[in-house]
Amino acid sequence: MNSTETTPERPQEAAHPPRAAILMVDDHPANLLALEAILEPLGQELVKATSGEDALKQLLQRDFAVILMDVQMPGLDGFQTAALIKQRERTRTIPIIFLTALSRDAAHVFKGYAHGAVDYLLKPFDPEILRSKVSVFVDLFLKEQQLQRQATLLRQRDREMLERQGALRYRRLTESLPEIMWAARADGSLTYANRAWRDYTGHQEGYELSLATFLQDVHPADRERMSGVWGEALERVQGSANEFRLRRKDGVYRWHLARAVPEHDEHGALVGWLAIATDIDDKRRAEETLGRFKTTLDATLDCVLMFSPDTLTLAYANAGAAKQLNAGVDELVGLSVLEVESAFDETGFRKLLAPLMSGTLPSQTYSTNHRRRDGSEVPVEVVLQYVAEGEGPGRFISVARDITERQRAETALRLASEAKDAFLAAASHELRTPLAAAKGHAHLALLKLGGQTEAGPGKSLQIINRQIDRMAKLVEDLLDISRLQAGRLSLELEPFDLSQLVLETRDRMAVLSQTHELKVEVPEHLEGTWDRGRLDQVLTNLLSNAIRYSPEGGVVLVRVVAEGDSGVHLSVKDQGVGIPSEKQRLIFERFGRAHGSKYGGLGLGLTISQGIVEQHGGRIWAESVGTIGQGSTFNVWLPRRTETQSATPTDVSRTPS
């Protein structure tokens, strides 16, 4: 077991000036005793260490004037221990004297000096000589001027040692680089390639390195260019940087950026070249992708803008933006987006951006006006989206489409629709008078026949009478649509029993089909304030639809449930063909029919029913899985008491919420 011992101080020496410490390192205790005997006359503090490790521990605790160290030791030998001592700033200037009896050749002695030794003594040595040498170092340690001179000497020796080890250090450094590196002589002939190059190309150490062999790993399309670039750099003696493709050991060519710089000595003379190649393949591919993306955006007719969420400054504008805003791309980049978004101030615009940055909304779509550079404005529809960039602030992307032509088309369509609606309203109104006259004459004719309607003129008059009724209902539906659009559908509110109305309607509709069973589930009494005639119209329409769209017959169930004093829930369920999910929004639009003209009807009944229900302050909706035989359920919710309210124009093309 290694140990460290310190010779105790003698009492009679306590009054002496401070002593220097001398570290003796040897793995043989006998050698340490011999050294102690030799150095004891110097009157200094002698510290013994039996290994390189013990010596290093002692050096962590105190300073020493000199170190006497055996070269041959187990574990850390003298050279290794000395190397570690020299690596530490505090101990690197401590003189080391190597003592050995084995290695007497000059190379080994030189190695000792190379490891920082101040002397190399061969055993057996003269005790007086050793004592004299140690005494010198002790005096240097105790005397500041001598210590400074010794420090200068040690620095000089360190410098000489670094020069001797320069080539080795240079090689180790280049071998550790992650990037490919070459070295060349002044004439351009390659002399060295580092480990990164060997790992990349798969060439082993010792591979014949020359310009010709280097070019074999360069892509054929780049060889001539790279050879010319290298020749030009040698001729001008100046650095160069070029991109080229270098073959990897698996045969794949990857783009690299090669930088070559001339190397000069202290007198400015060219002594060689250094070149480093950085793999830029991923970056180059990303730039190419970005370039294609930018080309695509520039080809887009829409206005595409990117801006910072912090400053709202435009960082990108495509060619479509330049055209739409009547400005160059360079003019737009750097502007505030608020100079384009003329309808917003900064506070309002940031409120628009907030849910996008928080992730509450994936995007915002809105219509506004963009201000051109000449001050004019263009109507646009904007889709705004926030794109995060890792831990960075991210960017906003705004895509704005010019909707000038669309607005013109919508205006023309609206005017045409208004003209059509006006025509239908006028035509329907004008048709009421001749229909009423025809109805009256048909009725009088039937009375004159005395009820003989089974054959002959009576049967024909009966058919005419039914068709007049059908035409009258169609005219009334068209007038109701017109009233809804104009906001002139008024309600005649009165208290009545809704249960009684449902039963009456059921009885009236039951005669229309013998194949349907009309079942009713209603409270005994359910009074409220509504327009009886209009609710009769709604209920009749729902029952008619239930019968029409159940061609195979089945049960039609009408259920009414009171929801306290606040409202009433009415539902009509059939077992018919059902409504496909994608058509359930269509059926409440004008002329909207889920199954086309197959089952008849104009598609106005549900539109009118929706308007009547909403005029009462209620809502109507449909539920269906769209499967034949499972039918549909139409639901109506009404407040128990409808307040008198003025009618407002209604968009009868919208769907219920």
What does this structure look like?
This protein is α+β, with helices and mostly antiparallel strands. Among the domains are: 128 residues, Rossmann fold; 109 residues, PAS domain (Beta-Lactamase, 2-Layer Sandwich); 64 residues, Helix Hairpins (Orthogonal Bundle); 150 residues, Heat Shock Protein 90. It is built from 19 helices and 23 strands. The strands form five sheets. The chain has a six-stranded mixed beta sheet with strand order 1-3-2-4-5-6, with helices on both faces. Strands 8-7-11-10-9 form a five-stranded antiparallel beta sheet, with helices on both faces. Helix 5 crosses helix 6, helix 16 packs across helix 19 and helix 18 runs antiparallel to helix 19. It is elongated. The two termini are 91 Å apart. The relative contact order is 0.04. The N terminus and C terminus are likely disordered.
Helices and strands in order:
Blueprint: E1 4-6, E2 21-25, H1 29-39, E3 45-49, H2 52-61, E4 66-70, H3 78-87, E5 96-100, H4 106-114, E6 117-122, H5 127-142, H6 144-164, H7 166-176, E7 180-184, E8 190-193, H8 195-201, H9 211-216, H10 220-236, E9 240-247, E10 253-264, E11 270-279, H11 281-299, E12 303-307, E13 314-317, H12 319-324, H13 329-332, H14 346-357, E14 364-371, E15 377-387, E16 395-402, H15 404-448, H16 457-486, E17 494-497, H17 498-510, E18 516-521, E19 527-530, H18 532-548, E20 554-563, E21 567-573, H19 605-615, E22 619-623, E23 633-639
Parallel strand pairs: 2-3, 2-4, 4-5, 5-6, 18-20
Antiparallel strand pairs: 1-3, 7-8, 7-11, 9-10, 10-11, 12-13, 12-16, 14-15, 15-16, 17-19, 20-21, 21-23, 22-23
Domain PAC: 240-292, 364-415
Domain Histidine kinase: 426-642
Catalytic activity: ATP + protein L-histidine = ADP + protein N-phospho-L-histidine
